[in-house]
Design goal:
The structure is a homodimer.
Chain A: H1 3-10, H2 14-17, E1 28-30, E2 36-41, E3 44-50, H3 56-68, E4 76-80, E5 84-87, H4 92-95, E6 108-109, E7 117-121, E8 128-132, E9 135-140, E10 145-148, E11 154-157, E12 170-173, E13 186-193, H5 195-199, E14 223-226, E15 238-241, H6 246-256, E16 280-282
Antiparallel strand pairs in A: 1-15, 2-3, 2-14, 3-13, 4-5, 5-12, 6-10, 7-8, 8-9, 9-10, 11-12, 11-13, 15-16
Chain lengths: 285, 285
């Protein structure tokens, strides 16, 4: 083995070590085709898991619009690096199919039965953060409320100043978590596959003085389909790491208290929930 | 004006409103060609501002390697969505030009003259955060130390387990801030232009069960040049928002205490430094 090869195997490996063999195997759950969306982009496939438990009305409206074909061949017309990729129907005749405005589903009340996998206390934006089935949430025990978080890769409904004005235009977060939008918007799902293709969507906003991007350069959605409406053999079959398991707890503990030799001094024993991975894999069926 | 057009102008505009006309104009500084790098990728140009004030030895070595052409036609061979894009010379004969290992420049000592633009106290990872000339830093007043932060778009040297083992391989952060790496790595610059092209670099790591990405699919750097070595009329002339001004302070205050009608209830009055923009524009010369 020559020196360079040795160097390449040693350089900067903590990301891999987080899943080293002394850890228990993740526990997986199947992604429900009834609650997942295949979004085909010109440059790759994206799969979104919907969140009917948290935002049932937004999920229902999205399912209806998807089945009407409202998003097919429609552009991502507002794409700002480090912020959001926003898309929606530009054709008013199509858009009229989606005139029902939605009441905000930005947070919900919790009761004594509320349980989740806790991640961190006092992360600036929430008294407590945690996961439920891979969805990142904030929780305020004093006010008995919880809400989904604007971590990268969530999908939420755009709206006007009226909190209850969302209809069909959506955004996917593509930068550092825009947590100041938490509780103010209706998050209704998250990208579980193909996030790299969302990151590669043509930006529409340029810096001052740079060449503008013309509308005909905007990336258009090839199609959006409910996974359950796609023939079985054309689906992407995915499994998601189950965040409600002892294996995931152990993963969290080791991530919080890193002991790999690479960490010659320990980082603060805290976890940014938006930087904690929940893995996806292709189902082996 | 039809209803749809009105809707499109109203939907989700707070990002724009942050720079509305009632705010003072930003103050700009010119990017120093002696301390900036043009990295040409097959799909677009990226400009990196180096940080000689904070990591002088890493900056010097990078300048030397860039001028030797060490990075030209070399791949981003370790690209993990939501984490880093890592590149460096694969050809050992070239790499030998860069065998000098560098002592970690992960943090530095501060004295009573240390000043910066404060952003936030107690953000989990640092007692205080702030900016110096657009570079995000953490500060520990008790221990009199400061360090650059792993916000998205910083460039840092890869290394082995030995903290002083970095040579020439570097990574650019592409996901949610990997703040657990703060102080453990040598950050020596940040992307100030073309970050969308970094986000679009071909990922090299796929999820379990997915089709592997072959090495010949890895994106190669076309060239890396010191901006000052490029003929004047071929340079990208940039200006960076000056973070040490009253105008920037006012921008921060309004971002912390959002009053736009869109925010029907106020977000917590805190700022995640990695989500606070420092603008770049094309110089008008």
């Amino acid at each position: 083995m020559n020196r360079l090869f040795l160097l390449l195997t040693l350089i900067f490996i903590p990301h891999c070590q987080a899943f080293a063999s002394d850890q228990p195997e993740p526990v997986w759950r199947s992604l429900d085709p009834q609650n997942s969306v295949l979004m085909q982009l010109p440059h790759g496939d994206v799969v979104i898991e919907l969140a009917p438990t948290f935002s049932p009305n937004h999920v229902n409206q999205m399912k209806e619009l998807i089945r009407l074909g409202v998003y097919d061949n429609q552009p991502f017309y507002r794409v700002i690096d480090g912020f959001v990729a926003q898309g929606g129907p530009q054709d008013e005749s199509t858009h009229k199919k989606a005139t029902e405005t939605l009441t905000l589903e930005g947070e919900w009340s919790t009761d004594s039965t509320f349980t989740f996998t806790p991640i961190q206390e006092n992360d600036m934006f929430a008294p407590v953060t945690g996961f439920i089935k891979g969805f990142a949430l904030g929780h305020d025990p004093a006010n008995k409320t919880a809400w989904l978080l604007h971590c990268p890769g969530v999908i939420a409904m755009a709206r006007g100043n009226d909190p209850d004005s969302g209809t069909s235009h959506f955004y996917i977060t593509i930068g550092q978590a825009t947590r100041y939008l938490d509780r103010l918007m209706s998050i209704f799902g998250r990208v579980v596959y193909g996030m790299e293709h969302v990151h590669a969507i043509q930006r529409t906003q340029v810096i001052e003085g740079d060449t503008p991007v013309e509308p005909d350069e905007h990336i258009r959605i090839v199609s959006m389909r409910m996974m359950s409406d796609i023939p079985e053999d054309e689906r992407i079959h995915l499994e998601i790491e189950d965040t409600e398991t002892a294996a995931y707890q152990q993963f969290l503990t080791e991530r919080r208290h890193r002991t790999a030799p690479f960490f010659f001094k320990p980082p603060p024993p805290v976890l940014d929930i938006c930087q904690v991975p929940v893995k996806t894999r292709i189902a082996n069926d």
